[in-house]
Write a structure and sequence with these properties.
Elements: E1 20-26, E2 29-34, E3 41-45, E4 53-55, E5 66-71, E6 78-82, E7 86-90, E8 98-99, E9 111-116, E10 123-127, E11 131-135, E12 143-144, E13 155-162, E14 169-174, E15 178-183
Antiparallel strand pairs: 1-2, 2-3, 3-4, 5-6, 6-7, 7-8, 9-10, 10-11, 11-12, 13-14, 14-15
Length: 191
């Protein structure tokens, strides 16, 4: 952190919205989620931020407001959560996208953030005003998994993950409700 240089690209290969709310890096590939009134959404760079391209434009609306980005270790699976359209998913390095809100109560939910649970198929996502949702099929479908969390509580930072891939601990900080902890797969499993 001694010398910082801009990595926004320039001209036609620049990030089109400078309100960057989420970033994820895997190797020399960067994903940046933005939140502007227009030309917002998800940008990708494959050269350490020298050039950028807006991706998912046929599915992700130009006014999508970024919340978080999750990329698996190989870079094949990419999840983009938004304040106004929920979850978007790519299974091919960001080349094609689908909206992935099946099972979430609101069709365009405010999904604060998303984490892998213990494997690449199992995910947890915090949906504002609803709680924690879980997916056992890599985000194709979701079900509410919030036993023990106060109903309708607003998240201040969504859920945070700490620990290894075999026994992580998850925390949720909720407005005026404090901190809640889930340890060793205690979040409710599907019946």
């Amino acid at each position: 952190g001694g010398n910082w240089l801009p990595s926004n690209g320039s001209g036609a290969t620049a990030i089109g919205c400078m309100v960057v709310k989420a970033i994820n890096v895997i190797g020399s590939t960067l994903y940046a989620g933005t939140s502007c009134r227009y030309n917002s959404g998800l940008y990708k760079s494959t050269d350490n931020g020298a050039t950028w391209a807006r991706i998912g434009t046929s599915v992700i609306p130009p006014d999508a407001e970024a919340n978080s980005i999750l990329v698996n270790v190989t870079g094949t699976l990419v999840f983009f959560t938004t304040k106004n359209y929920g979850i978007f998913k790519s299974a091919d390095f960001g080349a094609t996208w689908v909206q992935a809100n099946s099972g979430i109560a609101d069709s365009n939910p405010n999904v604060f953030n998303i984490h892998f649970r213990t494997s690449r198929e199992t995910l947890l996502a915090y949906v504002q005003g609803q709680g924690v949702y879980k997916s056992d099929d890599t985000g194709a479908t979701w079900f509410l998994s919030s036993t023990g969390l106060p109903s309708g509580a607003a998240a201040l930072s969504g859920i945070s993950r700490h620990g290894s891939t075999t026994s992580p601990t998850f925390y949720a900080s909720l407005d005026k409700q404090g901190i809640y902890r889930d340890v060793l797969l205690r979040i409710v499993e599907r019946p």
